[in-house]
Specification:
Strand content: 15-25%
Order of helices and strands: EHHHHHEHEEHEHEHE
Distance between the termini: 30 Å
Helix content: 40-55%
Number of domains: 1
CATH superfamily: HAD superfamily/HAD-like
CATH topology: Rossmann fold
Number of strands: 7
CATH architecture: 3-Layer(aba) Sandwich
Structural class: alpha/beta
Length: 220
């Protein structure tokens, strides 16, 4: 059994669920439209440039979870996944997951996006497990803080190493699929790194190191 690891945003789904959740809250009138959208777009740009301060961003994004009781949050999330996420899951993504499933591999998503947003997406995709940034919950309410290390850049390597210590799996024969140069620390750790609809920096690195470059978009 090999470990098949997948980034989520702009890899298995053709969009960014973290930014999308913020946009969803704006469109539903749940947050200040002008201020929230401006910050949400700013942090997405910082991420794309490789300049994101992950802790600063999480302070912004997780604060929204503190504004509502969990029951309302879960109802909003269900609508978000149905309306905004399901259309982003392509046939090619589902086929790739099934290919690894048929080969007996263990399917793992590792994403910087918080677990509140990503857990139902991982369930929809039918993977075996997910490593995501974990928002703190106390007495049934989100605090706006995180628990542990964000699974971002080098944090993905650290979180995966801690996860592996609890499993009978290893990185021998492992795959990692990602679109972003932010994931280079982990891409360098696996036996079979694959660039998926990659940004310019990752595409250049993949070409230089003869890594496969693929697309999971249905129209390509």
């Amino acid at each position: 059994m090999a470990l098949a690891i997948f980034d989520l945003d702009n890899t298995l789904i053709s969009g960014d669920s973290d930014h999308g959740w913020g946009q969803f809250l704006v469109e539903k009138g749940k947050v200040d439209a002008v201020l929230y959208q401006e910050k949400n777009d700013y942090y997405l740009t910082q991420y794309q440039l490789g300049k994101l301060d992950i802790l600063e961003y999480l302070e912004f994004s997780l604060n929204a979870l503190t504004q509502f009781p969990q029951e309302e949050l879960f109802q909003l999330r269900e609508t978000f996944v149905k309306e905004d996420i399901l259309p982003l899951i392509t046939n090619k993504s589902r086929a790739l997951l099934q290919k690894h499933r048929d080969e007996g591999d263990y399917l793992l998503i590792i994403t910087a996006t918080n677990l509140f947003v990503t857990e139902p997406i991982a369930k929809e995709l039918g993977v075996d497990d997910i490593i995501a940034t974990e928002p703190e919950v106390i007495n049934g309410r989100y605090t706006g803080k995180i628990f542990g290390t964000p699974s971002f850049q080098e944090g993905k390597v650290k979180r995966l190493a801690a996860w592996l210590k609890q499993k009978t799996l290893s990185l021998e024969g492992s795959y990692f699929y990602s679109d972003s140069h932010n994931d280079l620390p982990l891409l360098k750790q696996v036996d079979y790194p694959v660039a998926v609809d990659a940004d310019d920096t990752l595409t250049a690195y993949a070409k230089e190191h003869n890594w496969p470059i693929i697309s999971l978009r249905d129209d390509t």
